[in-house]
Amino acid sequence: MGEDAAKGSRDAVLDQVKTAWDEYYKNELKAIDAEQEILQRVLKARGGANGLAKLNAQRSKILLVNDINSFLTG
To answer: Of 22, 52, 23, 29, nearest to 37 (Cα)?
Structure first.
């Protein structure tokens, strides 16, 4: 009878650990999803890597045109 009580107690503790782990896992997934949404909004607002490359190309073109015009006009 002592073994049954110990087994029942152990099973109850394992059930509590499983419940706690499941809750922790669910909360972590929510936090990760929220962070992912925030980071995606930040990237979208910045234009992402393509937007940054396009901006650098446009600025480089403007600098090049200005330098050529300065050279040609003396």
So the answer is: 29
State if pTM tops 0.85.
Answer: no
**Residues 59, 8: Cα–Cα separation, whole Å:** 72
pLDDT at 47 over 70: no
Smallest CA-to-CA distance from 67 within 49, 28, 59 is with 59
9: helix, strand or coil: helix
How many angstroms separate the CA atoms of 56 and 63, rounded? 11
Range of the domain at 52: 2-73
* Domains of the chain: total: 1
Reduce the DSSP state of residue 41 to 3 states and report it.
Answer: helix
